[in-house]
Design goal:
Length: 476
Amino acid sequence: MNTAISPRPRSGPLTGVLAAAGIMVAVMQTLVVPLIPDLPRLLNTSASNASWAVTATLLGASVAVPVIGRLGDLYGKRRLLLVSTALLVLGSLVCAPADSLIPLVIGRALQGFGMGVIPLGISIMRDVLPPERLGSGVAMMSSSLGVGGAVGLPLSAAVAQSTDWHVLFWGSAGMGLLLGGLILRYVPEPSAGSGGRFDAVGALGLSAGLITLLLPVSKGGDWGWGSGTTLGLLTAAAVILLLWGGWELRHPSPLVDLRTGSRRPVLMTNLASVVIGFAMYAVSLVAPQLLQSPATTGYGLGQSMLAAGLWMVPAGLVMMAVSPFAAKLSAAHGPRTSLLVGALVIACGYGAALALMGSVWGVLVFAAVISTGVGFAYAAMPALIMGAVPASESAAANGLNSLSRSLGTATASAVVGLVLARMTTDLGAVTVPSEAGFRATFMIGAGVALLAALVVLAIPARAKAVPSVPLALAHE
């Protein structure tokens, strides 16, 4: 038996590369947002069909995150990190020459598979970083989601306005290839994997259940919330997920260990993740619309798409800037405290929005406050999860936690869209969201954040920051 421990990699380059990977996959989520008004014309299709360019990425991510996380635990996390990056590049290359809907949707779904980078990166950090670097590294990786989302919108808007829209995808393919090279150079394989069998039936069942759940949540506004299609898919999702749960409980090597997932720290953290994900995404939906609403309404701020995106950039940067402080708070008082602080700060930010929504600087301030809370919350959630599961399941468990956040963002998209579509005002021949609609959305965000705080209080107070696991003990 060889008990030699492999030398640890330099934590700076490793953390930087993994954070860059997180930023890139987050950028993929917003890459086509500036194009949405023009996609029907560009693709010669309807507005409803064009929205699949966003929905496909959500569905691809929902399937990929738990499945790729489990494959990483079984067969090697670095290997699956490279696979995720390759799928992102492949999706970009499929989208780059596309001039019709179907190849664009296929490529966007493949780009969604790249979201597996987040849980894999966090799990690799757990395995290879020294204890004193682990908390800050995980916090930075988690905050990369907010940075990527904030930076991606103005970046893609600028590119789309100044050149051909296909350049967005050629550029993302090139960045993906560069990222793959950096992963090969700086990211080690922590172990050969835990071994065992992959639960293919469980993967198919979870994928089917998530797709039938997220499709009506994402498209219910177009189809009608009381339509047969929406209700039928929601019913099918409930049946499939119940059957899947029964299978997972009986399987000797399940895709998701539901017994571990039912432990109070894991269950409550995942529930909090759903609610925090809702609160995080709601502001990213409503603030740009408020900024772009015509000034003639009396409450709109009259900004262009590009300007609105630029005003949102500081909020994303704040999220990464607070990550070291969140890590220090978790180390001193436990990640539960950081998560609770984050939820309460988010609630304060939404409350401040009611008073600050009348100016662009006010929007910048309340968005930054909300992002500060999200930064604390996102830094704490992986630490809580990894402190409650064995190292052999950390990638899968973080994948399920990332999926929980995605469920929250999908729900936020549906709820915010419904509120702003129902509460409108006429501006000549154009219908725009009303001031009451924006205020209602801010109040919903505050209420959801307070609900998250209540969920956090149900997490055991003894939850501690996750310990590190030495590198390459698999060589024993």
